[in-house]
Write a structure and sequence with these properties.
Layout lengths: L2 H17 L7 H16 L4 E5 L2 H13 L11 H10 L4 H7 L6 E3 L4 H10 L5 H9 L5 E5 L6 H4 L1 H7 L3 E7 L3 H6 L2 E5 L4 H23 L3
Parallel strand pairs: 1-2, 1-3, 3-4, 4-5
Helix pairs in contact: 1-11, 2-11, 3-11, 4-5, 6-7, 7-9
Length: 219
């Protein structure tokens, strides 16, 4: 990574600490999570994200920031744009001009047909574990979001991810729970109440998404 991009990454963490001083102690863990995600994407991998309730919404939010432009436009490269235009002389130019490059990410709470089928046929507590088994490949990252760190349906997915050779990032709060102890990297928001933890999770994952966008897309 060149010096300009390194400064951008450092600047994102500095800005987070300035805006949210309570998060300054967890910035080293945020940096570790960023490095794990960067290494994953460098290898052509993907991010799987899971959570319950409000954390499920956070999982979807993360996917939205990664799979399209967040603060940058992320235009297609000239070769890909030209290939699309050539394959469709009618709509190709418009299509290539509208599309944005993404970083592959999937929210595991979004696949309702699969989740309800597995819940009905087997056990709803293992839906995330089943999806991790099906979607996960070595080198991928699984991010589990739990304000308590003790959500069983998330914890069931954790050993599956590790057995597949994935890295597990836990985004949690309070004392971190089992998730903080068993994840490869844990970011523990320093709050006790659920809504306050969730309020801190948003600037944490926004910063991660900004750092990744700074890494892979034009300044």
């Amino acid at each position: 990574m060149n010096n300009e991009r390194t400064k951008l990454i450092e600047g994102r963490l500095a800005e987070l600490s300035e805006r949210y001083p309570v998060l300054a102690p967890v910035c080293p863990d945020i940096l570790k999570a960023y490095e794990a995600l960067r290494d994953c994407y460098d290898r052509g991998g993907k991010l799987l994200v899971a959570g319950n309730g409000g954390s499920s919404s956070d999982a979807q939010h993360i996917v939205g920031e990664l799979m399209k432009g967040f603060c940058k436009k992320r235009p297609l490269g000239p070769e890909l744009a030209a290939a699309i235009e050539q394959l469709d002389p009618v709509y190709g130019k418009e299509t290539a001009g509208k599309l944005q490059l993404g970083l592959m990410a999937l929210s595991l709470s979004e696949h309702q047909s699969l989740n309800t089928a597995f819940a009905n046929d087997v056990d709803p507590a293992f839906c995330f574990a089943q999806q991790t088994l099906g979607y996960g490949t070595p080198g991928d990252v699984l991010m589990l979001i739990s304000t308590s760190g003790n959500s069983k349906n998330l914890l069931y997915a954790l050993p599956v991810a590790k057995a597949l050779g994935m890295t597990v990032i836990g985004l949690t709060g309070r004392d971190g729970g089992r998730l903080a102890k068993e994840a490869d990297i844990a970011i523990v928001a320093p709050e006790q109440e659920t809504y306050k933890i969730q309020e801190l999770h948003l600037p944490i994952y926004h910063t991660l998404c900004l750092m990744l966008e700074d890494t892979y897309f034009e300044i």
